[in-house]
Specification:
globular, glycosidase, Alpha-d-glucuronidase, C-terminal Domain, 21 helices, xylan alpha-1,2-glucuronosidase activity, Glyco_hydro_67_aGlcAse, TIM Barrel, xylan degradation, Chitobiase, domain 2, eight-stranded parallel beta barrel
């Protein structure tokens, strides 16, 4: 799929500014773009500014290398490195000192009205600065008083694509892969460039382009068979400050190298990986590194050879270290052979039990990638105890942008509200204010590498994300990875104005819908943190007992008297004890446990009275009725703004809301009927339960 295909450019699909006074004021600034330097990043920044100005203002700016007219600079935008003499004329040493390697400064020059300077220490920051100024214009902010110094809070801001080489996308809900088709790497570089533009505009600096479950042809991506084509992708991403990474199969020395073992301490295996790394960097000099899923869900790993995860990760890290590459090692590792009658084995404990003893044993270019919760991207989970538990190890927080368990880009579910709660969770690792956000930005434990990894929700669909409004999740991920101080509401509003409409009524309506949507979805699906009541394999729609007797450890253990998992130290699996003292005590007791996680940590009788005054069973009934009603309200709100939304977008989203309403009703009826039949306790309000 390439440029001739009519696909959306999301928040970079610039519409002419309809505010004439603002446009006229802006025209004085943007009529000229002065490029200081001819490197690829300066050219990219200038190209993006030129494209945006042409569409937003209605004329094509003059682009030149010359900034002087007589003794005075002309009006316009000067773009360049802060070490250049011209840039230094307008940016102080103090401002330069405040810049990190990827940061930028945007500054209107008061002594020279109509002049704006965009500067950075390196090219990556210059591209980010150009996109930031474009956003400034889109949001109609004052260009005569602009003064921005901005640095990313996190070093690593990565997207994980679960794309397969046959073109399918595991847990993908937006069409087929944009990277692969028919076991080949795409040559449709137009769409790849537009994707790089979208990601760079929200500060993403790395993409893992293939599925973490590496098999079949994908095993060979690290060989010359595919590296030439991958180098072409890397060339496109590079000009936008983005590195490419590859997921690998740990047993590649056996599959590719024909060795008898993949033991990470075997000399031949070590040599094979070093030679492989050398070859990769010959094709892609700025290759980011490897993402590894090992010893999990049947993927091979060091356990098979009697070694631990530090042994495996460090061996790969040694191979990449000479080139500046990193190993990203996933902590999604657990025993998947549990018997449902075993009430002491607990999948939630696995990651901490495995990786906590290895804290401090990983090489400095190894980063552990930790899912935000201990299970698997459920609509409500506690924060993983590894955040705060790992004090001497680099770590990334793994978030799932693709909506595997949260509506699959059919149901509206704005995930920034969930992510923000996770980031604000206090681990107490170093006392109060040891929040997750300070773990993942590296400041709490002074990590060399840290940040965010998001499982992408992008595919070949016209709108990239299946549901037009699901673009907001991709946008929000990038914004929070760049700066976790943003609020979900301000991100939603910013995205809406840039991507959909700037009508005040429509904007406020959409922002309200987005902000409510996660809680609406939670209400009509699984209650109080229990999770997993989904249809097996597809994970969309209700099946209360679908995973109840599986080997995956995904139980709710509902019977006629109670529901929930006892994860207390006193009488349960002991998971609550993996947290630092303050949180361990909070989760240990039913009385102090946050009610939204009550069934995750405790086995609770149906007649237990919640803080609302309602019994547990009545709460289940109430929330499922409310959730279905509120899903209908989302559609009603969308209909109200029909006149402010482009027709094709309006109709596509309306169709999604119709599907969501049916899904919500099914959840309501299946879950309520299940618990009514299980308990024999009727709904006290007499509503229809089958």
């Amino acid at each position: 799929m390439d440029k001739e295909v009519d696909y959306s450019l999301c928040w970079l699909e610039y519409s002419k500014i309809d505010d004439e006074p603002y446009r006229e004021k802006l025209s004085k600034v943007v009529k000229n773009i002065i490029a200081v330097g001819q490197d690829k990043f300066t050219q990219t920044a200038v190209e993006e500014l030129k494209t945006a100005v042409t569409s937003l203002v209605g004329f094509e700016p003059e682009v030149s290398k010359e900034a002087l007219c007589g003794d005075n600079p002309i009006s316009g935008i000067i773009v360049g490195n802060v070490t250049d003499a011209l840039i230094m004329k307008y940016i102080s040493d103090d401002e330069i000192q405040k810049l990190d390697e990827e940061g930028y400064v945007i500054k209107s020059v008061k002594e020279n009205p109509g002049l704006v300077v965009i500067g950075s220490k390196n090219g990556h920051g210059l591209v980010y600065g150009a996109f930031s100024f474009i956003k400034h214009i889109q949001l109609k902010r004052d260009v005569e008083e602009v003064h921005i110094i901005d640095n990313p809070k996190c070093k690593l801001r990565l997207l994980n694509h679960w794309d397969n080489m046959d073109g399918t996308v595991e847990r993908g809900y937006a069409g087929r892969s944009i990277f692969f088709c028919d076991n080949k790497v795409t040559n449709s570089l137009g769409r790849i460039k537009d994707y790089a533009r979208l990601l760079s505009s929200i500060g993403i600096n790395g993409v893992v382009i293939n599925n973490v479950n590496v098999n079949k042809n994908a095993i060979w991506l690290i060989t010359p068979k595919y590296l030439g084509d991958l180098a072409k992708l890397a060339d496109v991403f590079r000009q936008y400050g983005i590195k490419i990474y590859l997921s690998i199969n740990f047993a590649s020395p056996i599959y590719i190298g024909k060795l008898k073992t993949a033991d990470p301490l075997d000399e031949d295996v070590i040599k094979w990986w070093k030679e492989t790394a050398k070859t990769i960097y010959e094709y892609i000099p700025d290759f980011g590194g490897f993402l590894v899923k090992a010893d999990s869900e049947f993927n091979p790993g060091p356990y098979k050879f009697g070694r631990d995860h530090a042994d495996g990760a460090n061996m790969l890290a040694e191979a990449l270290a000479p080139y500046g590459g990193i190993v990203i090692w996933r902590c999604f590792v657990y025993n998947c052979t549990q018997d449902w009658r075993d009430t002491k084995t607990d999948r939630a404990k696995a990651a901490y039990d495995i990786f906590k003893p290895l804290d401090g044993k990983f090489a400095e270019n190894v980063v552990l990638q930790v899912k935000y919760g201990p299970m698997d991207f459920q609509v409500r989970e506690p924060v993983s105890p590894l955040f705060g538990g790992l004090e001497r190890t680099n770590q990334l927080i793994e978030l799932q942008i693709t909506q595997e368990y949260t509506g699959q880009q059919i149901d509206l579910c704005y995930l920034a509200t969930m992510w923000k709660e996770v980031l604000e969770f206090d681990t107490y690792a170093k006392g109060p204010e040891s929040k997750v956000k300070y773990v993942v930005d590296g400041t709490l434990f002074n990590n060399k590498y840290s940040g965010f990894a998001g499982v992408s929700n992008v595919g070949s669909d016209k709108n990239w994300t299946g549901h037009w409004l699901a673009q907001a999740n991709l946008y929000a991920f990038g914004m929070l990875a760049w700066d976790h101080s943003f609020t979900p509401e301000e991100i939603a509003r910013e995205w809406c104005v840039r991507a959909l409409t700037n009508d005040p009524f429509a904007v406020e309506t959409i922002v309200s819908m987005l902000m409510r949507s996660w809680r609406v979805y939670e209400k009509y699906t699984a209650p109080l943190g229990i999770g997993w009541m989904v249809t097996p394999h597809t994970h969309y729609g209700p099946s209360v007992d679908g995973y109840e007797y599986s080997k995956w450890g995904t139980y709710h253990r509902a019977d006629t008297k109670a529901i929930g998992i006892d994860r207390s130290v006193k009488s349960g699996t002991g998971f609550a004890g993996q947290y630092h003292r303050e949180n361990a005590a909070m989760f240990e007791s039913m009385e102090t446990c946050p009610e939204e996680l009550l069934l995750f940590f405790h086995r609770v009788p149906y007649d237990y009275v919640l803080k609302s005054g309602e019994t547990l069973i009545q709460h289940i009934y109430n929330t499922h009725f409310e959730g279905a009603e509120e899903a209908e309200k989302l559609k009603e709100d969308w209909v109200k703004i029909k006149d402010y939304i482009r027709k094709d977008i309006y109709e596509d989203v309306l169709e999604r809301f119709n599907r969501q309403i049916e899904n919500a009703k099914e959840w309501r009826d299946v879950v309520n009927s299940y618990f009514y039949r299980k308990t024999g306790i009727p709904d006290k309000y007499g509503r229809k339960i089958y």
